[in-house]
Write a structure and sequence with these properties.
The structure is a homodimer. Chain A is an alpha+beta fold. Chain A is built from three helices and five strands; from the N terminus they run H-H-H-E-E-E-E-E. In chain A, helix 1 packs across helix 2. Chains A and B meet through strand 5 of A and strand 5 of B. Chain A binds a DNA duplex through helix 3.
Chain lengths: 136, 136
DNA sequence: TTGTATGCAAAGCGTTTGCAGTGAT
DNA sequence: ATCACTGCAAACGCTTTGCATACAA
């Protein structure tokens, strides 16, 4: 079975603690803080293994490379900031989408993604100079 | 400006007449019926140019490479068959999605994709043996 | 004639994989 | 002592790009 290596736990906990879906490169950078010599190949291998085991889920959107998040988060959708490109979780689900499909089509699943400005990048009166970026 | 070459018109009309978003490889195959020597590099170059000019739109979903459709189709969403992987247009739009975003987030756009079985690949009573695949 | 568009092949880029060495069990 | 895991580098698949030629204007 799977062995508990420093690499594996560093990769898994990076994703578990991130609070938003992470790119493989972001996982590498975070996990390298715990395991300096960590290679990108191991990140890819472990991310794939963790997805297969059901610990993580791949979030694929709009031509971007896949991001990874804890599978425990349950059904939800995502919001991508058009300025900083980061992806955030959204709670709630529009539901009742099956009627959009053409006649004779069977709907099994759905994906909803919103695009716009995250709280940090939003324009207008709420903008404060010097606001720090959300936890990476 | 853009020159009207055989390659360009073959590529554009392939996408215009397809009836569903096409992958670059599919565009190549269709356009090669009109221009046998057509190269994949030219397909990529022209697809990019046509998107920049506003004639086509790129449809990007779930880790797949981008597909291309006529920009004239207006706002709509897509359905991807989990069996044949083809992508189809859906008319209609759930609307009222902005409330899903976290407080302070500004929604500018949205993307909705349904997954399931297309009419050709649907299970159950409608299935007929020997049914031919829809026009590729 | 002029310069963009093309075809070919090489280069990129993110991801995957073969291999021999490392280290968890 | 095993044998899965790791790092490295080569291999991959898709897309882009450099370059000399072809051809639309």
């Amino acid at each position: 079975m799977e062995r508990m290596t420093r690499q594996r736990s560093a990769i898994e906990s990076s994703v578990q603690q991130a609070g938003r879906p992470l790119l493989p490169q972001e996982v590498l950078q975070l996990a390298q803080q715990a395991v300096p010599g960590l290679s990108i190949a191991t990140v890819y291998r472990q991310l794939k293994a963790l997805v297969d085991e059901g610990a993580l889920r791949a979030v694929q959107l709009a031509g971007d490379p896949p991001r990874y998040e804890p599978a425990a988060h349950g059904h939800h959708h995502h919001f991508q900031c058009t300025r900083c490109q980061r992806v955030f979780d959204m709670h709630g689900c529009p539901g009742n989408l099956a009627h959009l499909a053409p006649a004779g089509f069977v709907v099994e699943d759905h994906e909803v993604t919103l695009y716009g400005r995250c709280a940090d990048c939003a324009p207008g009166p709420r903008t404060r100079a010097g606001r720090r970026r959300a936890t990476a």
